[in-house]
Amino acid sequence: MKSTLLKLLFFFFIASQIHAQELLPFVENYNKSDYQGDNQIWNAAQGNDKAMYFANNHYLLRYDGVIWEKYSLPNKTIIRSILIEGDRIYSGSYKEFGYWYRQNGKMKYVSITRNLRLFDEKDNEEIWKIFRYNGSLYFQSFNDVFIYDGKHIQKIKFPFLISYCFVVDKNLYVASVDKGLFSMNGSKISNPKGWNILKNTVVHAIEKYKEITYIFTQKKGIFIVEKSGLKPWNNPLNETLKANGINVAKFIKNNKLVVGTGNKGVYIYDFNTQTYKNIDRNNVLMNNSVLCIGFDKEEDLWLGLDNGIAHVEVNSPISFFYDNSGILGSVYSVATTNDGYLIASNHGIFEFNSGNFNMLANTQGQGWNITKIGSKYIIGHNDGTFCYENGALTKINHVSGGWNLSKSMINDTYFQSTYSGILVYNDASKLTQNILIKDLSKPIKYVAQNKKNEIWAADNYRGLYRVLFDDNYKTNKIENITQQSKIKNDFGVKIFEFRDEILFLINNIWYTFNSISNKLEENELFNTNFKNISDVVAIDKDHFIVLQENILYHIYANGNKFVWNMIQEKYYKGKLINENLRIFRSQNHYLLNLDDGFISLQLEYQNKQNKGVKVEAYNNGELLPNESKIKHNTELRINVISGIYGAGKPNLFYQINKARNYIPISNGAIILNNLSSGSHSIVIFKHDGANYDKVASFDFKVAQPWYFSFWMILLYLLVIGAVLFFYYKWNKLRYTQKLKLQAEELKHQREILEMELKAENELNIQEYEKHILELELQTKSSEVAGKSLSIAKQSEMIDNIQNILDSEKDFNKLKSEIKKAIKINEVNKHEWEIFETNLNQIHNEFIINLSKKFPNLTPKDIKLCVYLKMNLSSKEIAPMMNISFRGVELHRYRLRKKLNLSQEENLSKFLLSL
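The chain above was modelled as a monomer; its predicted structure follows.
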C-alpha cells in the first residue's frame, strides 16, 4: 500500500511539475569562448560577402561560417552600431564613426570624423544607430544626429534625450526618452496627434507590416497606429511582453513577428495560427536579454544577446522538441495525438498536452516503440505491451520488451518482436489475443512478412531467420539464412520493407532472398545507390531515412531513381540512439527520436544545397590568390565558405592532387601541413549522399625547402666546384708524389735486386766453395781413413812380426820373415804427414774451440781428443800415436783431469758435444 501511494505521488508530481516547450526552431549559441570577444552584441547584419558582422563593444566581429575574426578601432572605443551598404560596413562608436572594408582577407577602417571637430569636449556622445534616409546616412547618438551625404556632415542637436530614430515609409520618427515620439522633417520636429500615450516610455521599434504600423515600447507593450491615434495591440501576448520588457522587434516572412525582450528571451508570434513560441534560457537560448535582431539571406535570425550570439533557424523545415530538464530521458519513440504527443522514453511513457508532460500510470521504465493502428496507439514496453486510446491506457499483454510492431505486407496481421520471440496479432480490434511463434525463443528485433506462411526475423544480436508455419501459425521450419548463405559477419541485421520487397542490410551490404537457391544474394539496385549505410528506417512506401557515415539522409524514391536530401549533422550530432532510430509519420511531416527529445521534418523537405562556395586560402596569416606559391614546411589553411548557415548548408568534401578518396571538410576548414615541394591541387565537392559534384578548386605550389633554393643550389655548386678543384689539386699532388715514390721505390727495388743478385752470387760462390771444401774434406777423410787403415796394417804387421818372433826359432828364417812383413806393411813417411795435415783441416774448428776452452792442452792431447772425437778405440789410437795400449789409457786418464771431467762423465760424449 505504501509503495502504491509513493508511485501515485510520483506520478502526480510528474504530471503537475513538468512543463516543456513545444516544437521550436533550431538554435546555435555562440559564447565569448567561440568568438573571443566581449559580452554584449549591440548590432548584427549580413554583408554582401555573406559574412555576418556584429557590433561587440570593443570589437567588430566577423563570422563567415568557418572562422571568427575580431577587429578594434584605432582609438579602442566601444562599437555600438553598424550598417552595411555594398562593400562598406559603417560603424558608430564613442565620438567616432566611419566605415570598414575588406582587403586581402583583413578588415580595414576609414574614419569619417577624423580631424573634424564634430563633438565638443564636454560631450559624451556614442553613435547608437546608423540608417539611410533621403539618400543620406544618419549617425544617431542620444543627443544629436549627424547627416552625412558622402562629402559633408550636418549636425542636428535635439533639445531632449532621445532613444532611437525610425524610418517608416518616407517618414522619420525620433523617440524621446520621456517626451514621447516626434516626427522629423529636415531639422524640424513635431509630436503627432493622439500619441501622447508614448510619453514617459521608451520606444524601441516601429515596424510597418501589411499596411499596419506597430509601435513597440519598452514597458507599455505594443501599439497600433490608427487615424484617431494609438491603440494597444489586442493580443494576450501583449501583456506578457509588457511584463518582460521589449528591446527590439521585427516582422519576418510567413506572417510572423519576432520580439526580443529584456528578461525572457525572444517571442515568435504566428499570425496565421495566432500562437507564439518563446525561446529563452529555459529551453535553448543562452541568455534571456535580447539586444538586437539581425537577418541572413536565408531569413533566419541572429540574436545579439547581453552575453553571446544566437542563430535561430526560424525558416528551417526542421523543428525540435527539447527537454532540458532531463526528466523525460532518452526518447525511443514518439507519436502525435489529437492534443499533443505520446512519447516512449527510457523513463516511461509520457503524454504531452498544452505544454505539460504527464507520465502515464504504471509505465515507469523502458519504453521502446509506439505504433498507431486506427485510433489506437500500441506501446512496446519493458514490462509488456500497452494500448493507449482516447487518453486511456490499458495493458494488453505481459510479454517483456516489445521492440517493434510491423504490419504484414499481404494482410492486416501485425507481428511484434520481443525479448523472447514473436507475437502475432491477427485482429487489430482484439489486441489482447495473440499467438506466440514457437521454437524461436530468441530476442527478436525486427519482423517482416511478404509471403503467406513465412516471416523473416532478425535476432537482436546476430543472425537472420526464415520461419515457415502453417495457417494456424504452427512452426514447420526455422532456417538460419545468414549461416546458410555463409555470411560470417551477421551482427545487427536490419530488415527493410521497400514497396513489395524485403531487403536485408547486413554489415553495410544489401541482400534479398533467392527462393530458388534458398540463399541471400546481393541487391544490385541498393548496393549501387546506397553504399556504406549503417541504418535504414522506412517512412512510407516512397520515403525513408538512411544513416551514412553518421549523416542522415531523407530519401525519396521515384521509380528506380532516388532523390537524396541531407539532414545536417549539427541537428542530431551525438544525440542519435544507435540501433534504435524510429520514425512516426504525421500528415505532411515525420518525427525522429533523439536522446533529449525529437526532430520534426517536413515530408517534402528538399535540401537544395548551395553550390556557390568561396575558397579563401591563408598562409602565415596572408590571403593567397589562386596558383600562389607558399614556403616549404608551412601550414596552409583553406576556408571553404558557403555563406549558408541554416539547413541548406552543403555537405562538403575535398580531394588533394586527384586522389581517389574524398575527405570530409570539418567545420569548413582544410588544414594542410608537411606538403611536398611542387604543384598541388585541392578540389572541393558537394556530396548529397549519392554523388560528388565539384563546386570549387584551389591550386598552389610549394616552394623548394631553403636548402634547395636557387642561392643554396648555387652555393652547393660552388662548394662542389671548390671541393672538386681542391680534390683535383690534391689528387694531382698525390699523383706526383706517388710517381716520385714509385720512382724511388723502383730505384730501391733495383738496388735491392742488385744486392739480392750479388748476395745470391756470393751465396752461390760460397755454396760452391763449400761444396769444393766438402769434396776436399771427403777426399781428406778418405785419406785419413786410408791412413788409419795403413796404420792399422802397420799395427797388424807389428803383431805379425811379434808372432813370428815368438814362433820362429831359426834365426835366418826369422830374419827373412821379419823383413818380408816390414816390407809389406811399411808406412810411407810422406803419407803420414799428409794424414796429419788432412786430419787437422777436417777438425780445424774443433781444434780451435778446444784450444780456446782448454789452452793448457798439448798438441799430443789435442791429437788424442781428435781421435776420440772420431770414435776410435784405444787399441786403434795406440799405433797411430806410436804408443802402447797402456800408454793410451794413461793418456786418457791425464786428459780427463785436464778437462776437469768426473768419473761419471763420458770423455768421448763430452768431446762430441764441443
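Residues 1-20 have pLDDT under 50 and may be disordered.
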